[in-house]
Specification:
Layout (H helix, E strand, L loop, with lengths): L1 H8 L1 H29 L3 H8 L1 E3 L12 E6 L3 E6 L3 E4 L4 E4 L6 E2 L4 E2 L7 H8 L4 E3 L8 H6 L12 E3 L11 H5 L16 H11 L16 E3 L2
Parallel strand pairs: 1-9, 8-10
Antiparallel strand pairs: 2-3, 3-4, 4-5, 6-7
């Protein structure tokens, strides 16, 4: 026992403990410095390398089966699920409630979208039919209706994993327009109120209002020729 006390009180032991502590701290700092970039590998680089992407480890954040139901006079019956998705019963569509690049933490989508060009978007996430547009880029109601066809839809090169599904794809112009993206200047459209549409979209996609510097792509090719 005396030998142990003598060893502990020995200055060499103190230096040894101090060096081990400092060594461990320095080692942790070095490991953290080089490990963090690896943990933060961008989804864009991962997508190009593996042709697979998602919205975080969503399987770890499944919170029960509760649902919120919305009855909307213009958009019909909507179901907000607790897995980060919502269902449009009227048009038989399921949507992810966040933009690609964000991560689902079990309550909300955090982070910001990843900006990519349209050619990369359709390459990885799917391409629909071609619709003709005027010089302002506005698609007529006839071509907009035609863009809903999925018979010629080309599947994207990437697999998107989220909420237990692997068949996510880029929406067509028609499908985006079911959310109230309506042009008041086009008389062929039945304008139902931009403000109400905007309020509903912000409720369905709450993270988007914090990322106003981005535009959303559709899978539809707009051709003005």
């Amino acid at each position: 026992m005396e030998q142990i006390k003598e060893l502990i009180s020995n200055s060499n032991f103190i230096y040894f403990v101090l060096s081990v502590t400092l060594g461990g701290l320095i080692g942790w700092m070095i490991a953290s410095h080089f490990a963090v970039p690896r943990l933060r590998v961008s989804k864009w680089r991962q997508l190009k390398k593996t042709k697979e992407t998602g919205f975080g480890n969503s399987r770890d954040y499944m919170q029960g089966t509760g649902e919120e139901r919305i009855e909307h006079p213009n958009f019909g019956h909507l179901v907000l699920r607790q897995d980060g998705t919502w269902i449009d019963s009227k048009n038989k569509l399921m949507w992810i409630r966040g933009a690609w690049g964000t991560d689902w933490n079990g309550r909300e989508f955090i982070g910001g979208p990843i900006a990519i060009n349209w050619y990369d978007a359709i390459h990885y996430f799917g391409q629909g039919t071609t619709a003709f547009s005027d010089i302002t880029g506005t698609i007529s109601s006839k071509d907009l209706l035609g863009s809903q066809s999925l018979e010629q839809y080309i599947k994207g090169k990437a697999t998107v994993l989220f909420a237990g599904y692997t068949d996510w794809r880029l929406p067509t112009a028609y499908e985006l327009n079911t959310l109230g993206f309506i042009n008041k200047n086009d008389r062929d459209y039945e304008y139902s109120g931009a403000e109400k549409s905007r309020e509903l979209r912000e409720r369905l996609f709450p993270n988007l209002k914090n990322n106003t510097g981005y535009h959303l792509w559709s899978a539809t090719t707009a051709h003005s020729g």
